[in-house]
TrEMBL record:
<protein>
    <submittedName>
        <fullName>Co-chaperone Hsc20</fullName>
    </submittedName>
</protein>
<dbReference type="GO" id="GO:0051259">
    <property type="term" value="P:protein complex oligomerization"/>
</dbReference>
<feature type="domain" description="Co-chaperone HscB C-terminal oligomerisation">
    <location>
        <begin position="160"/>
        <end position="239"/>
    </location>
</feature>
<dbReference type="Pfam" id="PF07743">
    <property type="entry name" value="HSCB_C"/>
</dbReference>
<dbReference type="GO" id="GO:0005739">
    <property type="term" value="C:mitochondrion"/>
</dbReference>
<dbReference type="InterPro" id="IPR036386">
    <property type="entry name" value="HscB_C_sf"/>
</dbReference>
<keyword id="KW-0143">Chaperone</keyword>
<comment type="similarity">
    <text>Belongs to the HscB family.</text>
</comment>
<dbReference type="GO" id="GO:0001671">
    <property type="term" value="F:ATPase activator activity"/>
</dbReference>
<dbReference type="InterPro" id="IPR001623">
    <property type="entry name" value="DnaJ_domain"/>
</dbReference>
<dbReference type="InterPro" id="IPR036869">
    <property type="entry name" value="J_dom_sf"/>
</dbReference>
<dbReference type="InterPro" id="IPR004640">
    <property type="entry name" value="HscB"/>
</dbReference>
<dbReference type="InterPro" id="IPR009073">
    <property type="entry name" value="HscB_oligo_C"/>
</dbReference>
<dbReference type="GO" id="GO:0044571">
    <property type="term" value="P:[2Fe-2S] cluster assembly"/>
</dbReference>
<dbReference type="GO" id="GO:0051087">
    <property type="term" value="F:protein-folding chaperone binding"/>
</dbReference>
Amino acid sequence: MAALRTTLQWLRPRSAPISQLFANRAYQIPTPSTLRAFTTTPQTLNPNTENDIPNINITNYYTLFPSTLPSGPPPNPETKFDIPLRTLRAEFLSLQNRTHPDKYPPGAPKQKAEALSALLNEAYRTLSDPLARAQYLLKIQHNIDVTAEDSAATDKQALDPETLMAVMEVQERIEELAEEEGSGEEAEKVIEEMKGENRERVEEGVKVLGEMVERGDVEGMRRECVRLRFWYSVGEGLKEWTPGVREIRLVH
């Protein structure tokens, strides 16, 4: 046993006293002053000023993103309706990083950054969606607002018979599913098929809408926006469908 204790004592690591360990500068215990130095952020030490806010052309949503959309909005021979979304997102994130309100001190610089950041958010959201993009162009270029409350009834009446019939067929199919006896899995399968059909309608609608925009066909743009709004609404209704639902709510 004595031999075993001797062996264990020999194997035990021999450490220097704590005072000797911290005698080396690399092991100094942090003082309150050094802790404050580590917790102070560069933004606090050197806050940005109003002059640091990027100089961005705010004429319209297109001019906010000059790298992605250098030619401005259509109709323009050098501008297509389609937008490279990955490039747009990269530029948007870069601008948002440079204009983030937290980087600026209170007062005019921060307020300006907040306004610019909000504008960039709205512009990115609008340009990223084909329908919202076309509606925006109608609004700024022709003062036509297809989203206005007073135009909803007119738009529904103006919907072409073919589209109106297709929308009614979707509603009738939903009602039939609610009345049919059978498994929920079968109904869900039908709904998935209807979702696929609606995606195809949306894709075709976006294609036609783009052609109208690039041609500068204002009436065609308005008509296709109205039609596409219905298909968007059908898509949302199908997404929210649950067994037993007799109809989907259309928002136009």
